[in-house]
Amino acid sequence: MRKRIIRNIMAAVLVLMMVFSSSACSSSPDVNSILSDGAADFGEGKQEQDFALLSSDEIMNRLIDEFSGSHSEPEGEQIPDDDADAILDSADPDSVIGGNGGNDGGTGGNSTDGSDAQETLAIASRQELKQAMHQMFDETKEVLNFRCEGNYLPDIDELSEVYLELEREDPFDVICLGRYGIGGSPDNMTVYYEYNLETDVLKQMKEETRTLLEQAESEINIQGMSDYEIVCEVNDYLCDTIVYPESEPYAEETHTAYSAFKNGSAVCDGYARAAKLLLNDYGIECDFVVGECIPDGGHAWNLVRLDGEWYHMDVTWNDGGAEWDENAHSAYLLVTDDFMRQSRVWDEAVYPASADEAYR
Q1: What sign results for the dihedral spanned by CA atoms 182, 184, 189, 195?
Q2: Contact (Cβ atoms closer than 8 angstroms) between residue 302 and residue 276
Q3: Mean pLDDT score of the chain
Q4: In sequence order, what E strands does 275-343 have?
Q5: How do strand 143-148 and strand 121-123 relate by DSSP bridges?
Q6: What confidence score (pLDDT) does residue 253 get?
């Protein structure tokens, strides 16, 4: 027993001599290296459950806090007849679709003899109203003047529904809208839209977006890929090249694909519009979805169709979760209605229903 104790003491002395010798021959470790070694030693042998990893609920709550509330619809109003007439009378003729009918419901224009007059546009259905509004946005006009035919008489609710349809269909042109209204008599109806950017600036942005889209596509190699692989590639590309703005108020252009491609900065609807433009160009059906995060906060994302079924894709949240989620870039990629209902609500009657299971 005594010999064993002596041997242990001698071994300890030998270790101490080696430590002192090593210290004398090498420089003293700095604080960072001590902390680094300590962290490595602490982590060695630890089990995964010993670490305070974020749960899916915690990740989702952080995503809701940081990446919702950036999408908002323009505010609409049913305007009195007199106000509608005043808007039409004061509008720049170059900003009007359908001609200025004047208060008599006939043909208009600024010429007293009618030489520059245009025939007032006649609209007899919701589809015709939608076509006229689409032309309005395509040309970045501010006023639509028309007379109603038959029993057709649109109101603010119908105008809102048509706007949402066009927003889903045309991410190039239906952007940066702040306020709109409709009013007047059946013989002389006026629809007006106010843009949140100067029309000249907006026209330039829309034109440049087409070039920027082509540039983005030149950077994405989809050669030989399946549709599923293309969707994943587009999702990864946007996550890698776009940053969500750090703080409000968000610049108006961050709601556009233009800013996503040009500046590498976008909020949720900018991400979603960029995704739709890319996937549609690659021949993959992609819808633009707007809804609310729970408990509140406007948000936008996409529905993508693969193998005849629809799936949700939220590129913003795929990008936003990168710091916290080991499934970053894919947590909200090609998932179901049931999965999305955990964190948001949307008008499900308006959009196609998803597949029953996430894409495999």
Answers
A1: negative
A2: yes
A3: 84
A4: 286-293, 298-306, 309-313, 333-335
A5: parallel
A6: 95
